[in-house]
Amino acid sequence: MIEGQQEIAAQAARWVVEDGLEYGPAKRRAAKQLGLSGRGALPSNEVLEDAVRDYIAVFCADTQPQELLALRHLALVWMERMGEFRPHLGGAVWHGTATKNSDIYLQLFCDDSKSAEIALIDQNVRYVPRTVTGFTGESVEALSVHAFCAELKQDIGVHLMTYDFDDVRGALRADAQGRSPRGDVRAVQRLLLQEVV
């Protein structure tokens, strides 16, 4: 590992957990604060995820499991609500590193990208349309909502990223560690059952 990457990862992990920052911005902010620059100096997402898990184990072990469970319950509510669009949960809530400061990221696979937007309008849900970088590295449309999480007693950002229906095949390829990068409704239900056992 390049010198400084571990320092960047440790600092970035704190911001990911405590402030809900995304990995990219957290790594860049940490590098800047530590006086390290250049893309080569930034740790991989896998290294940062390990640092996030370490941070949680040291500083949040007593609260994070309950927060993660609450976020997974809320994610499932939204997945069922948007069920016709084949929702898949990704990000920290799926991977198990989420805290109360994390947002929920759902990928929707639609025959028509506007149909998800119409569904929110029909449900009287206020949303903000935006463009974000998707799992393929290309720009995708996202519909961002604030959803109240009763278990956490706070609003949580829920981001509905819309993809073409055919993109679902690429979405399920295992990551570098052999893990599924996202899961459908049944997979999230299985995670919740494991938490209860």
Keywords:
single chain; 197 residues; alpha+beta; Beta Polymerase, domain 2; 2 domains; 5-stranded mixed beta sheet; 8 helices
The N- to C-terminal Cα distance equals 38 Å
Tally of helical runs:
8
Rg calculated over all Cα atoms: 17 Å
How much helix is in the residues?
A: 40-55%
Q: What spatial form do the alpha-carbon principal axes imply?
A: globular
Category by helix and strand content: alpha+beta
- CATH class descriptor of the largest domain: Alpha Beta
Number of domains: 2
Portion of residues in beta strands equals: 15-25%
Name the helix and strand elements from N-terminus to C-terminus, one letter apiece.
Answer: HHHHEHEHEEEHH
The largest sheet has its strands arranged as 1-2-5-4-3
Beta strands, count:
5
CATH architecture annotation of the largest domain: 2-Layer Sandwich
CATH topology of the largest domain: Beta Polymerase, domain 2
The largest pleated sheet is described as: 5 strands, mixed
Mean pLDDT, rounded to whole units? Answer: 89
List segments where confidence is low: pLDDT < 50 over at least 5 consecutive residues: none
CATH superfamily of the largest domain: Beta Polymerase, domain 2
Oligomer status: single chain
